[in-house]
Specification:
Layout (H helix, E strand, L loop, with lengths): L3 H7 L14 H15 L3 H13 L5 H13 L18 H4 L24 H17 L2 E6 L5 E4 L2 E2 L10 E3 L6 E3 L5 H15 L18 E2 L2 H27 L16 H14 L1 H4 L4 E2 L9 E2 L2 H8 L3 H7 L7 H14 L8
Antiparallel strand pairs: 1-2, 2-3, 4-5, 4-6, 7-8
Helix pairs in contact: 2-3, 2-4, 4-6, 6-9, 8-9, 9-13, 11-12, 12-13
């Protein structure tokens, strides 16, 4: 049976403050991989690993365990076997097949001699999750995104109503967490005060998400973050389906777009990535003004991109897929999406 001693025997990184340093993140993941190499055949032991790690205050243990389990499920079985593939910082191009019909069943891609068959659970949890997490990161505290909107989890915008979430309060000295009670006046005031701390930062230069960790003591549980993530990721797929359906029902469109499930895998990844990042309104095939009273603020919508998808015009898709924004992460994200689009063939759908 897995015990605390087993964890310490693999790597003694649970008894100090080292979790605060980014440089220790890969060490934690390596430790979990080594333990799972030993215990991965027993689901009860895997769950016990998470419980023990949490009991000895291994910061974000559940998050790291989930990351490791997803990596292993995707066919990357151990750090010793494929060290470069196991790190979240690995280049996206190494994580995904070179085209929509390459790869293996283990990483949600079809074998070379079989057609791609869409499976939503597999697509969500094995194909899209690593990609979205690579781009968005996972944070259980509030940070400001590039538009100065309060954000949490895996890029979830909570700016409109953060007080509706079920917040935990993390003691800054002990790092222990307790559930805030919205019906308790003191807890409600504490929650609003912590949210106000983030709002005050909107007038300052935007930082990287990691730079907001100490600005507020509000946290979300791993279960809440996961539920928000699943809802948003599956919602992005539904948004793509709705855009395709409405596009195909629009009079005057010369060609139709196949159902989402029938598109090449790499195109599915691109469409869901853009829908997840932009939201339905901004990614729609209909172009609208961002501000009805001030046309100088630009437009939402990607009509030329969706026309290119319908017309199987790969070069046009590449040209019209870029999202605007002056930050390195978005530039890399655009480049990766374009690299996926270039693998498509006009007759592949």
């Amino acid at each position: 049976m897995l015990t605390t001693k087993d964890i310490y025997a693999n790597d003694n990184i649970f008894d100090d403050e080292s979790w605060k340093e980014d440089s220790y993140k890969d060490e934690k993941k390596q430790t979990l991989h080594r333990l799972l190499d030993k215990y991965h055949n027993d689901p009860d032991e895997v769950e016990r690993l998470s419980t023990i790690a949490e009991d000895i205050d291994f910061k974000f243990s559940r998050q790291y365990l989930n990351e490791v389990l997803r990596e292993r499920a995707a066919g990357r079985l151990s750090l010793s076997a494929q060290p470069a593939e196991m790190r979240l910082s690995a280049a996206p191009e190494r994580r995904y097949a070179a085209n929509a019909y390459a790869g293996t069943q283990s990483d949600a891609r079809p074998s070379a001699d079989s057609p791609y068959v869409y499976d939503e659970d597999r697509f969500v949890n094995t194909t899209m999750r690593p990609h979205i997490e690579e781009q968005e990161g996972i944070f259980d505290y509030i940070y400001l995104d590039t538009s100065a909107l309060k954000t949490i989890g895996v890029g979830a915008n909570i700016d409109a109503a953060p007080e509706k979430l079920n917040w935990l309060y993390e003691d800054p000295q002990t790092h222990k967490r307790r559930q805030l009670d919205k019906n308790n006046a003191a807890d409600l005031a504490l929650m609003k005060n912590e949210i106000a701390k983030i709002d005050k930062l909107k007038s300052e230069p935007i930082r990287a998400a990691e730079g907001y960790e100490k600005e507020s003591q509000l946290r979300l549980s791993a279960e809440t973050v996961e539920q928000m993530y699943q809802n948003r990721l599956r919602g992005a797929i539904d948004d793509v389906r709705n855009i395709i359906r409405r596009y195909n029902n629009t009079p005057g469109k010369r060609r139709k777009i196949p159902d989402f499930e029938k598109l090449p895998l790499n195109l599915q990844i691109v469409l869901v990535d853009m829908a997840y990042n932009l939201g339905l309104k901004k990614f729609d095939y209909i172009q609208t003004w961002k501000d009805e009273n001030d046309h100088g603020k630009g437009k939402d919508g990607y009509p030329l991109f969706w026309d290119a998808v319908a017309n199987r015009d790969i070069n046009r898709m590449v040209a019209q897929s870029s999202r605007t924004g002056n930050n390195t992460r978005l530039t890399k994200r655009n480049a990766y999406v374009q690299s996926l689009l270039r693998t498509l063939q006009p007759d592949s759908y």
